[in-house]
Each structure stands twice: as structure tokens, then as C-alpha cells.
Model the fold of this input.
Amino acid sequence: MAKRTQKVSSYAAKDIQVLEGLEAVRRRPGMYVGGTDVKALHHLVYEVVDNSIDEALAGACDAIDVTIHEDSSVTVEDNGRGIPVDIHPEKKKPALEIVMTILHAGAKFGGDGYKVSGGLHGVGVSAVNALSEWCEVEVKRDGKVHVQRYERGAPTGPVEIKGDVPKKETGTKTTYMYDRTIFNGDFDYKFETLVQRFREMAFVTKGVSIHLLDERDGREMTFYFEGGIVSFVSYLNRHREVIHPVVYVEKEVDDTGIEVAMQYTDAYAESVYSFANTINTVDGGTHLTGLRAAITRTINDHARKNNLLKDSDPNFSGDDTREGLTAIVSVKHRDPQFESQTKVKLMNAEVQTQVQQVLGEELGEFMDRDSRAARAIVSKCLTSARARAAARKARDLVIRKSALESMTLPGKLADCSEREPSKCELYIVEGDSAGGSAKQGRDRHFQAILPLRGKILNTERARLDKILSNNEVKALISALGTSIGETFDIEGLRYGRVIIMTDADVDGSHIRTLLLTFFFRYMPQLIEDGHLYVAQPPLYSIEHRKKRHYAYTERERTQVVKELGLDGDSAKVQRYKGLGEMNPGQLWETTMDPSNRILLQVTIEDAAAADRTFDMLMGAAVPPRKRFIQTHAKEVRNLDV
Ligand code: 0RA
Done:
């Protein structure tokens, strides 16, 4: 039998206050969870899980189970101490009810014992409760199972005792169904989104295991990283050649918990992630600034002290020490200040000095202790510094040259006659033969063609200086008219659409990846402003009764063959391996004619993905490179960016 532990007095002033508080959340969800869209919906889960993570951080919990049920209700269960259920002396209510129904209750409780969630949202689980059609919390504590149910934030009854458990069995289980009258868009929880967040949470919360089960399709995943952020760094570097062991430090300074793990690789890319109270602060902040300052200063100090830098060498810049760096900085702060609700950037000024001090000390000692590692790091920075100097020179040269030759466009460019940039298109075409077809097939009125020789950038390591000293790339930069890098100026752009047109084979996709990487690194605004496209040539031609049909995907080919009433054998199907196999008329009709072609607009995310792929293809250790090409060759061939 359930036992009543408390009477409900529905008209008490305190209850009305409570309901007003929750009503405010329902009226203005944007203020509390950032809106009513799919992102905000995921915030609900994070808010609940944050509370369990807090228990883990307090050393009181090591397992968190998250289940998305078939009806999209969600259960989060942990084996922490359980939300207290004793009666609060002033409010005369069980702590559980207060935590669930009063905004920021956790923080307002005062005292360490009642600190609930230091998470980013920090609004507490009461906000989730307010935005739920219903919610049920089950607390195992003191040998009993206590439960309370709420609808749209209001308790439907008192905290009841449902049964007994062994005294040492404790924990909190929250199940809620988000309110569809508030989150009323056509969306639902996304497994991948949750996976991403829980992976990060598990990485920065040593020793906790997070299990996610999606009952809608049976997918499940568990995250547990014994080594915490050291594992995180090793994971990020799993395809890279590392040049020394991971440097790790964990320390508390003035109540701020600081944890840093870092390791250099021989790669070009930088992978640095920062976290504040387990939240991935994607816009960085003071902890990240502290990390960078510590690294640059310590490496310079060490290099000078040990004569690894000549007196005539300048100090390393932040950019020099950034190349090839993989690092995680994770801070736990009692009162984290963020720039705004959505932009995640840590603002607490003192954290910069704290991180800088803690990491500076540790890295300095590490370099003194392990001179081999220290030399490898310094020589890595030297290489970066030299490459950057060479790149600057190459770039200046390109810029000066293109300024000098601003009238003389590259000889290979077949320009269009139209002069109004917004009406003009530039096709970047791989290979001379395809370039020839494109030149003949185009509408010369508004379409320009720049052929690039295949394998343009087939350098083992695609460093800036090598890319920029490449003649083909120089031609591309002068044709576009914008310059690159810091001197990039969109005003100079000579074509409203820049279209990459490469073969539908592995080489073609490689060149496309290279070009996307180039644009991503040196002309990101071109992408952000929506000027960059990828052409989609057909994969197949199907000839039937003297008429030619085209298919752009495998599925389309099957469909066309079927629609024409052909069977697989009698149909005359030709697989295009290269653009050069099409005559100019066919190329126009299928790939260049604005009324018929398909262009994929490149987003900055696509280009960023290409950048990562590129690192994997070019900069990585050999085994994964092979594996990548083999396992992805098919998709690559199908021209997905
Ligand atoms: C307040 C105090 C204590 C634990 C918790 C809240 C707590 C909250 C949540 C939310 C989800 N899971 C949770 N687990 C614990 C400490 C109580 C004590 O000292 O025993």
C-alpha cells in the first residue's frame, strides 16, 4: 500500500507561487531551455542527465542509463545518492518536490549537500518538469522507493512510498514526456545527437558509464572512458602519428577544478576542445585562452633555455604552436558565466590565469623531464614556423603577381563575355580533355571554364606553401579575383557561382576533396556566402530507341531501366567514368545547362568534413588511410561531398 507522507494543501500561497514560477517557464521556454525547437528538446535530456553527472562528479554515481521510449518519453536513471526526500524545514515540503517544482531550487538550497546541477543550463530539472506533459520521479533512498508524479509541472499528489529496497541501493530515476503543445514541430529525439553529447560527457567525467538505449529502433550504445580526457586525446589521435606521450594534469585552484590533456601529432590540423562543467564550449573562452597562452609561453621558454631556438630566431607565435596540437581542457566551476544562452563561451576571467598556471607548470616539468619529447615538440613548432613563413612568401607572391597581372587572366581560363559577376559562373574542371568538352559545350555568354590538370595537388603533405606555389592554384586564385587568407576580399569575386566539376571516380573525388579543403582553409567566406557548388554529372546513360536517358544515381538507373520497360540485359547502359567520355553537347545537357543540371551548394559543414577527410587521406599514418579509401571508395564514387 502506498503511504501518504504529506497532505496537499492546494490553495496555500507557496503553491501558487510555485505554479507561477513554472507557468513562466511554459510561457517563455526560450528563456530557460533556448526555445521550442529540436535543439531545445534535446536540452531537456541534457538537463536531466547533467544532474546525474553532478552526482558522478561528487563521486557518488558511476552509472547513468538513458532510455528513449517508443512514445518518445525519456527515462534517465542513475545510481547516485538519490534526491533527498526529507521535509524542508521552511517550505514544509519534501526536498524532492522542491527540486522538481521550484526554479533554480538546487542553487537556492544553499550548502553543498543540495547543490543540484552546475550544468550550463543550470535551470534545474524543474524546468524540464514544467515543459513536460507528465513526469515521474522515483528515488531510492534510505531503503525505500519514493515516487512523485507531476503534470505540466504540478504534483498530482504527494511523494509516496512505493516499496522497500536494500538500504545501500540508492539512485534517482526520472521519466518525462515532453509537452507536445510546447514542442510542437515535426521533430523528435535524434540518436546521433544524443550519442555525441553523451560521448563528450563520458570523456570528461572519468569513471562514469553512460548507457543510451533507443527503444524506437533498438539501437544502443555505452560510453565509458576509464582514462577520461587522456582517452579522449588518444581517441582523437587514433589515426594520427603522435610524437610524444600524452601530457596530463589535474588540479584544483581556488575552487576551480582544472584538467588538461594534450599531445602533438605530426599532422597539420589542430584539434582542441574545451569544456566547462562537462559542456562543450564550442566558442571557447577563458579556459581555452589560458591553455593556448600556457603552451606558447612554455614551449618558447623551454626552447630558449635549452638553446633549441637560435638567438636570431623569433619566438614561436600562437599559430606555430597550434599546428598538430590535440588537446582537451576541462574545467569545473561553481559559478560558470557564459557569454549568452546559445553561444557557448566561458567568460570567468580568473579561469584564464588558473589554467595557464596549472598547465604551464606541468608542461614545463614534462619538457624538462622528457628531453626527447621536448625536442620533438620544438622541432615540430620550428617546422610550422618555417612553413608559415614560406606560405606567407608564396601568398604574397601570388597576390603581388595577381595584382600585376590583374588584366592578364590565366592563359588556361576560357572566360565568359558577361561582366556582371552575379551573372557569371566559373567551372573548375579536372583534366584537359574534359576541359575541352566543357569549353565547347558551355554557354560562353556567362560560363567560364578553368581546366585544372589532374592530380594538381598530389603532394604527400599538403602544406600551405606547396598548395599555393602550385601553378594551377595560382591560376585559380587570379581567376577568382578575391585573393586569399587575410587579404581575401569578396568584392573582387568575378563569378557569382564557382562550380567544381570533377570525374565521378576516385581521383575525381580526391581532387574535389582537395579543392573543398583549399576553399575551406583560404576562402571560407566564399562558401559561407553561398558561392561554391559541386556539379553533378550523370553516372549512367541509358540508350533506348535512339533516345538517351541519364541517371545520376544507382537507384535512378534501376528506375529508368524499369520505366522504359527494359530488362537489365537488353538495356544499353553506359557507365560514365569520366567527364571526357561525354561529348560537349551531352555535357551541356546533363551538367551545365541551368534548366536541367543539378548543382549541390557546398555548406561550410561539407567543406569542414572534406578538410577532415583530407587530413585522413593525406596526413595520417598509413594503415587508416588505406582502410578509408577502401571502405569509402564506393560512396566517394557516388559524388557525395
Ligand atoms: C541534492 C542533494 C544530494 C543529491 C542530489 C540532490 C541528487 C540530485 C539528482 C538528480 C538526478 N540524480 C540525482 N542524484 C542526486 C545529496 C544527498 C546526500 O547527501 O545524500
Observations:
- The CA atoms of residues 421 and 495 lie 5 Å apart.
- The pocket of 0RA is lined by residues 51-52, 55, 78, 80-84, 113-114, 116, 172 (CB under 6 Å).
- The first strand starts at residue 3 and ends at 4.
- The chain has three domains: 23-223, 229-389, 401-537+600-635.
